[in-house]
């Protein structure tokens, strides 16, 4: 039994990386067809696909009233994407970011962390809070598509561009979603054998597992000097995870929040969002040193979580 779980875990990782490989290879061509910039593809198409695993987990957990798993997944995945994913990618190659992304999308990056902190301050995400979050997700997607389209047209004109990337993009997305499901399900089985708490499973195991698509995409994009796809993906998936995933879960079932989360975990989300925003705004890039700092910060959070919630 345990051997089969490990085999499925490995198969999930293989599917994740192969799917991410296809997405990175064909994102630029897809952007041309949609008349979106490459960053716009990362912020919308790729990001929406990347949150599908989290969305599936959140909806299922909400229906079963597993609020700790939902919140743990949301907070853990957010911190993992900012600290570990961006940090590791910057260690491969310093990451530059487009001025338009700094001006238009990075403010959303900061806004989502602050909004979720204040909505959760009363220790409950109500259905009204969920509606607010879903509406903010819709605004973010519309705004990102609009700005990306304007940027593309101003640079390349409005002519229709042919592309044969759709089949490869869909195949990549299918592999990513399938791989994430295999990875998450296998991880949960393994974690249960060690008697971990529901919140700890959400904040570490499920969060890392459902964020594996972004990690795979970002590493491959950085290694191929196409990090703008990955950066857009990280910003978009983080914003959509908090706004769309938590919003839909709260609409299904109000989510209770543990008081201890407001002491450290929620502030850590805000801290990482502010830190990365400042790093990007100062030099429009993430250096290897800054990447190492982000990874070290996530490792400290990882260790703290095991000690506090274990």
Automatic annotation (TrEMBL):
InterPro entries: K/Na/Ca-exchanger (IPR004481), NaCa_Exmemb (IPR004837), NCX_ion-bd_dom_sf (IPR044880)
Occurrences of domain Sodium/calcium exchanger membrane region (ranges): 5-145, 165-306
GO cellular component annotations of the record: plasma membrane
Transmembrane segments: 6-24, 36-63, 69-94, 106-124, 166-184, 199-223, 235-255, 261-280, 292-309
Principal location: membrane
GO MF annotation terms: calcium channel activity; calcium, potassium:sodium antiporter activity
Membrane topology according to the record: Multi-pass membrane protein
Keyword Repeat: no
Biological processes per GO annotation: intracellular calcium ion homeostasis
Compartments it resides in: Membrane
Gene3D superfamilies noted in UniProt: NCX, central ion-binding region
Keywords: Membrane, Transmembrane, Transmembrane helix
Annotated protein name in UniProt: Sodium/calcium exchanger membrane region domain-containing protein
Organism: Candidatus Komeilibacteria bacterium RIFCSPLOWO2_02_FULL_48_11
Lineage of the organism: Bacteria, Candidatus Komeiliibacteriota
